[in-house]
Amino acid sequence: MALSRGLRWCQRIFSWVPVVIITAVVLWSYYAYVFELCLFTLSNPLEKVCYLFAFHVCFAMFIWTYWKSIFTLPSQPSKKFHLSYTDKEKYENEERPEAQKQILNDIAKKLPVYTRAASKAVRFCDWCQVIKPDRCHHCSVCEMCVLKMDHHCPWVNNCIGFSNYKFFLLFLAYSMLYCIYVASTVLQYFIKYWVGEIHNDRAKFHVLFLLFVALMFFVSLMFLFGYHCWLVSKNRSTLEAFTSPVFLRGPDRNGFDLGALKNLEQVFGKEKKYWFLPIFTSLGDGHFFPMRTQSESSSPLLSTEHQWEDGRSDEETNPLQIEDQAVRIEMET
Questions:
Q1: What gap in Å lies between CA 136 and CA 289, rounded to an integer?
Q2: How would you describe this protein's topology in the membrane (predicted)?
Q3: So what's the pLDDT on residue 2?
Q4: What Å distances lie between residue 211 and 21, 42, 113, 173, 184, CA to CA?
Q5: Hey, which bits of 162-249 come out as E strands?
Q6: Above 50 in pLDDT, residue 305?
Q7: Residue tagged active-site, from 128, 145, 153, 179
Q8: How far apart are CA 329 and CA 296, in angstroms?
């Protein structure tokens, strides 16, 4: 037990190594740009002021979004999705798999759960003892179920999901902006150092590596950011891009695709003035997501969500019945 606890602490300590590396590189880039380039190399005062002002704007947005990506805790399923003491005891005492499956089905009827496991069973996490909401997955690194989990990112030492996916996207965008700004403003002085117009060996070293590091990070971030932009346009997570979510009607990779604009609003919200700020504006609470088909996203389904939130009885509305009706409507059409 003590050994296991010690290994867990070592794992947690080493998990911060990528964050420390990124932080060290960013701090060095700040010193190299502000001091070695702007203060020690540039001679025009107006040029210094313009360079420093634009740099600090990019730097501030980059740091803000990186901080939010790291320290925004992943959202977990609410208590409504946890088994009660009675249900948990009943589930654990039952040895027959089919009977356990039926117990979970009965509990899930009271919840807005529309996706299933590949076996069509209700998705249940044995570690967290929770019925998984749609698009929720268990992260083995964080040791918790995460709402709308996208992936676990070692560079922010955090699980990217419903609570911080917008922050992560903005972090990638402002990282690219930071890199391209640094590279574009450093390039002309790199050339001047290279042809011998400016003689400062120490600054030359910093400018050389500043350009190289900025371009290297920009290229790698460009592909990652482009991939996530494609995911947002399709309303998919990274996990859903590899494994399609399963509904009662079967697997459907585009099950949550509402169209490009609505997909964008799911992550960034309806207020466009907040889209570029690391402020949480995503729609919903992470437990329920509108679905693609008209029969699934119609008012009866939304009514189901509100009734679940209000704590009404499952006799008034049954999510599984609505899903079955949706399947029959699709088959008829």
A1: 11
A2: Multi-pass membrane protein
A3: 54
A4: 18, 16, 50, 19, 8
A5: 246-247
A6: no
A7: 153
A8: 10
Give, as one character, the DSSP assignment of residue 247.
E
- 122: in domain: no
> What is the distance between the alpha carbons of residues 26 and 121, in angstroms, rounded to a whole number?
47
**Does residue 105 form part of some domain?**
no
Q: pTM to 2 decimals?
A: 0.86
pLDDT by residue (tens digit) across 116-163?
A: 998 889 999 999 999 999 999 999 999 999 999 999 999 999 999 999
Provide the strand spans (E) within 3-116: 115-116
Asked if residues 97 and 193 have their Cβ atoms less than 8 Å apart, the reply is no
Describe the chain by its helix, strand, coil percentages, rounded to 5.
60, 5, 35
Answer yes or no: is pLDDT of 320 > 90. Answer: no
Return the amino acid letter for 136.
C
DSSP 121: P
60 is a domain residue: yes
pLDDT at 113: 94
| Rounded distance between C-alpha atoms, residue 256 and residue 114, angstroms | 11
Q: Is 153 a catalytic residue?
A: yes
State the residue range of the domain holding 61.
2-73+162-218
Tens of pLDDT along 74-121? 999 999 999 988 999 999 898 898 999 999 999 999 999 999 998 889
Percent residues over pLDDT 90 in the chain = 69
Q: CA separation (Å) from 265 to 211, 229, 298, 302? A: 36, 13, 18, 17
Exposed (0-12), middle (13-18) or buried (19+): which is 235, by Cβ within 10 Å? buried
Average pLDDT value for the chain: 87
Contacts 24+ apart (CB under 8 A), 113-119: 113/319, 114/247, 114/248, 114/291, 114/296, 114/319, 114/323, 115/245, 115/246, 115/247, 115/255, 116/246, 116/247, 116/248, 117/246, 118/246
Span 248-262, average pLDDT: 93
Between CA 155 and CA 17 the distance in angstroms is 9
Residue 155 in any domain: the answer is: no
Instruction: Please count the structural domains in the chain.
Output: 1
